[in-house]
Amino acid sequence: MTDRSNPALPRSLTELMGQALTMEREAVARYSELADMMETHNNPEVAVLFRKMAGYEQLHVNQILADMGWADDVVLPRQRGVWGTPESPEVVPIEEMHYLMHPWHALQLALAAEQRAEAFFAEMAGTATTEAVRRAAEEMRREEAEHVALVREWLAKVPQPEGDWAVDPDPPRYID
């Protein structure tokens, strides 16, 4: 449980939504980066999936901006201590990528990211110092829970790859 006296905790609706905006923008950037990587490796099916995820995260960005009455180019300070890791909870770790991954793998990564985001906002709601912050964090948690359910629905529609999915019959060759 997070210490309520932690100075990194959002103390106002503006601080909470600023961190939510940062999270969503970082998720958009990472999904876009992953889509670019998959296009580079000629994995268009997974690239399309990551672009779709970036689009969903961009909808969250747009909603936060609209709800708060902020301009598109608003830049708010990133409070790294809020989530305690270098990357925000909703960012898919780059080291989890594989150029031969299948949509099932991409959705597993997205599911884990959405679950981390849901848990983050649940913690924010539970440690909120004001009712406005608690309500907003709970609303964000519900939205992330909806994303978890959506990704699970997508997962149910794609086959889990065979165990040898990462075997490349023509692997890249590097010559010094």
Describe the structure in your own words.
This protein is mainly α and 176 residues long. The protein has a single domain, classed as Ferritin, core subunit, four-helix bundle (Ferritin, Up-down Bundle). The chain is built from four helices and no strands. It has helices spanning 13-40, 44-68, 103-127, 131-156. Helix 1 (13-40) packs antiparallel against helix 2 and helix 3 runs antiparallel to helix 4. The protein is elongated and about 55 Å long. The termini are far apart. The relative contact order is 0.16. The mean pLDDT is 88.
Question: Mind sketching the topology for me?
Answer:
Blueprint: H1 13-40, H2 44-68, H3 103-127, H4 131-156
Helix pairs in contact: 1-2, 1-4, 2-3, 3-4
Tell me the CATH superfamily.
Answer: Ferritin, core subunit, four-helix bundle
Beta strand count: 0
Span between N and C termini? Answer: 51 Å
Number of domains: 1
Which outline best applies? elongated
Largest sheet: none
Strand content: under 5%
Radius of gyration using CA atoms only: 18 Å
Number of helices: 4
Structural features:
single chain, 176 residues, mainly alpha, Ferritin, 4 helices, 59% helix, 0% strand
Describe, in short, the structure shown.
By secondary structure, the protein is mostly helical.
